[in-house]
Description:
Layout: H1 6-14, H2 19-44, H3 52-74, H4 97-121, H5 125-146
Amino acid sequence: MGGSAVGALAPAARAAVPDGDLAYARLLVALELLSLDFYSRALRSGRVSSGLELRRARAAEKQHYEDVAAVLTAAGQIPATAQDIDFSYPSKSFDSWPAIARLGVRLESLSLGAYLGAVRSLETPDFRNHSARAAASEAQHLSVFSA
Length: 147
C-alpha cells in the first residue's frame, strides 16, 4: 500500500471504535508482525535470487502494521511489537526458494483472508477502507509466490 493511512485512521480511531474493530486491529497487528518476520528471514536466508519484490512486500507489510497499530494507539491501546512475539517456523522453511514460496503462499493467503474478513466485518469506515486496500496489496504479494 503506498502512502500512509495513519492520518486517515487516527481520527476514526479517536471516535468510539467498536470493540470488534479493535479486536480485528489486534489480530491484524499480529499478522503483520508475522509477515514482517517472514520476509526478513526469507531475505536473510540467501535463497532468494532477486529480493526486490520481497523487499517491496516487506515495506508494504510495515506500512500495514503502522496503519493498524495507529488505530489501536489512537484508541488508547498499546499495539504488540516484534519483541512481544517469538515466531517459529517448520524446519527447513527457509532452506530453498521453493520452501520459502510454499510458506509465502500460506502466509499471504492467511493475510488476504484476514483482511477480506475485516472488510466484511469492520464498522469503522476508514478502517474498512484501509483493510480493502491492504487486501489488494496482500493479493499482489500472494502472486509473487504463486508465480
